[in-house]
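Lab channel / #folding
Pinned by the channel admin:
"Please post every new chain as: sequence first, then the structure tokens as a reply. Keep commentary short and put observations after the output so the thread stays searchable."

First post following the new format, from NK:
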Amino acid sequence: MVEIINGIQQIGIGVSDVKKVFNWYRNHLGFDVLLFEDEAVASLMSQYTNNKVEKREAYLSLNMTGGGGLEIWQFKDRIPIASENPIKFGDLGIYAMKIRCANLMKMHTYLKELGVLNLSQISHTHKPNFYFNDPFGNRVQLVEDMYSFSKQSSLNGGVLGAVIGVSDITKSMGFYSTMLGYTKVVYDAIDSVLSTDKKKCRRVILQQERTSVGGFGDLLGPTQLELVQLLDERPNKIFENRLWGDLGYIHLCFDVSGMAVIREKAIKNNSPFTV
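Reply from TO:
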């Protein structure tokens, strides 16, 4: 059996009020299909929660225009903790999720009228895009992308990918290329971050070739990962002294075919499964 990475199934977001977050994304970004609503114990993740099995509530919502979903995840017996330091571009971990958008100008105007925080100007680096913060402190990037699974009224689609801070961008490129098929480099440059401090960094945007897809690949659509390495200073770890499930982006989930084959590949590449 040959393994296929069909796309990004969802991005996980640790929150303090799962219903409030779900309703905001349903009302404002079209994630209005609730695939599941589940309350259970996260027994398999105990190694990431101080060896304690935590009870959680989770919603998985989709935007049927096309793209990955949101797994909105909340501890039931623990108050989730925010990062001690403000999360900055280039910090280690998932800095932002990317959401595809066919009408970037109209969406920018809409979010400006909505009063979202830290709304950036539209940048034309690689593809037109802009950033903003959702009301819960999560950084979101909307990227111009015309892929569509079905015609919907939403101005935007689902999750296109993620912006990930790394400590060794060359090593990270090798991992995502070998393990997950992100072999196409569509952008690679030394940039200054679009902020007041103008930090120097290397940014690389990777895409899959997508020669064939299975599973939910047509719904999820093409994806991209943006890797960022700071060059002039040492980044912070986004989840330093915190647990998986605390506030922020907690994981990136891929829809795959051939899990057993991927497991063997992971072992051979010194990245064995941890769950």
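NK: The chain has five helices and twelve strands.
TO: also worth noting, The longest strand covers residues 4-14.
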